[in-house]
Amino acid sequence: MRIAFFSTKPYDRIWFEPMAKDYGYEIYFIELPFSEETVFLAKGYDAVCIFVNDHVNAQMIDTLHEMGVKALLLRSAGYNHVDTRAAKGKVAVLRVPSYSPEAVAEFAMAMLLTVNRFTHKAYGRTREFNMNINGLMGTDLYHKVAGVIGTGKIGQAMIRIFHGFRMNVLAYDPYPNSNLDVQYVSLEELLSKADFLSLHCPLTPDTHHIINEKTISIMKDGAYLVNTSRGGLIDTQALINGLLAKKFGGVGLDVYEEEEGLFYEDCSDEIIQDDNLARLTTFPNVLITSHMGFFTVEAMQSIAHETLENAYALENNLTLKNLVE
Ligand code: NAD
């Protein structure tokens, strides 16, 4: 099998190159993102392998189909960046539904602890021998209320972590899991009671801007919000308004609704055109990271293995357990 691999970073090659050899697959690593301009580079390949900010529309699906590309191998769990309806019957869309839920949940907790205890600011201060701790006061997590929106694989890992901190955990999910040791409540109740809120639902038409002007107004004053799921879950303008009104104790964003073209790239020499992102970076209680919740050794190994297993299943007409219907 020949695979055209888009949005390649050095850390992708480390895992994929040796593993692909074991499968006998040839991978063409391309640094460019997958787009309407680059789709033609996939000519002559059996499959295209893409990441979270490679958007695939119906026209690109048709082009792939005409070129004989059989599969889109997603190096991600989320698939909101692919027009899966257009792909049906033309190109098989295969994802990696679970690689390390703990990687993302642990990162969400790291963000929460950072914005709460200002370790990011303390690090800068002590490096300059400013040992003053004014303005760095946090709040205990012990016995506080944690709210989890979406109790799938990552949400469950998050609940275990919150329990470890002896927090009282509330959850909201339209499909509650009765096996979980957690109290399900309505979205409104969760928003009104949570001191610390973590988002773990996928981006769908239902969840788009689930955090908006109205839902922010229901939240407790001083609440902490962490989003490691998808940027589109939060209405950025409403979040900025809330931050300006001092609604939040702290906010951690690993994802951002306009992250495409910015996240994963070094833009340090460029004039940033995105005013909302620029504004967000100015708040002392906001921590932004570049969609890296997944980024652990275990997760990268698992993504490479599962992606190549998906290719193997397709090539050998086996059951496609990770097919996005
Ligand atoms: P999952 O499919 O196991 O769980 C998603 C849960 O969300 C399900 O329980 C589902 O019922 C629930 N849900 C659906 N609609 C909802 C709604 N309207 N309100 C509340 N809950 C709703 O997915 P997962 O593996 O736990 O991943 C969750 C998300 O995390 C992914 O969709 C992806 O966007 C994101 N993610 C981010 C990173 C990162 O690096 N930051 C890495 C992996 C995944």
Automatic annotation (TrEMBL):
<dbReference type="Pfam" id="PF02826">
    <property type="entry name" value="2-Hacid_dh_C"/>
</dbReference>
<keyword id="KW-0560">Oxidoreductase</keyword>
<dbReference type="InterPro" id="IPR029753">
    <property type="entry name" value="D-isomer_DH_CS"/>
</dbReference>
<dbReference type="GO" id="GO:0008720">
    <property type="term" value="F:D-lactate dehydrogenase (NAD+) activity"/>
</dbReference>
<dbReference type="InterPro" id="IPR058205">
    <property type="entry name" value="D-LDH-like"/>
</dbReference>
<feature type="domain" description="D-isomer specific 2-hydroxyacid dehydrogenase NAD-binding">
    <location>
        <begin position="109"/>
        <end position="293"/>
    </location>
</feature>
<dbReference type="InterPro" id="IPR006140">
    <property type="entry name" value="D-isomer_DH_NAD-bd"/>
</dbReference>
<keyword id="KW-0520">NAD</keyword>
<dbReference type="InterPro" id="IPR029752">
    <property type="entry name" value="D-isomer_DH_CS1"/>
</dbReference>
<protein>
    <submittedName>
        <fullName>2-hydroxyacid dehydrogenase</fullName>
    </submittedName>
</protein>
<dbReference type="InterPro" id="IPR036291">
    <property type="entry name" value="NAD(P)-bd_dom_sf"/>
</dbReference>
<comment type="similarity">
    <text>Belongs to the D-isomer specific 2-hydroxyacid dehydrogenase family.</text>
</comment>
<feature type="domain" description="D-isomer specific 2-hydroxyacid dehydrogenase catalytic">
    <location>
        <begin position="22"/>
        <end position="324"/>
    </location>
</feature>
<dbReference type="GO" id="GO:0051287">
    <property type="term" value="F:NAD binding"/>
</dbReference>
<dbReference type="Pfam" id="PF00389">
    <property type="entry name" value="2-Hacid_dh"/>
</dbReference>
<dbReference type="InterPro" id="IPR006139">
    <property type="entry name" value="D-isomer_2_OHA_DH_cat_dom"/>
</dbReference>
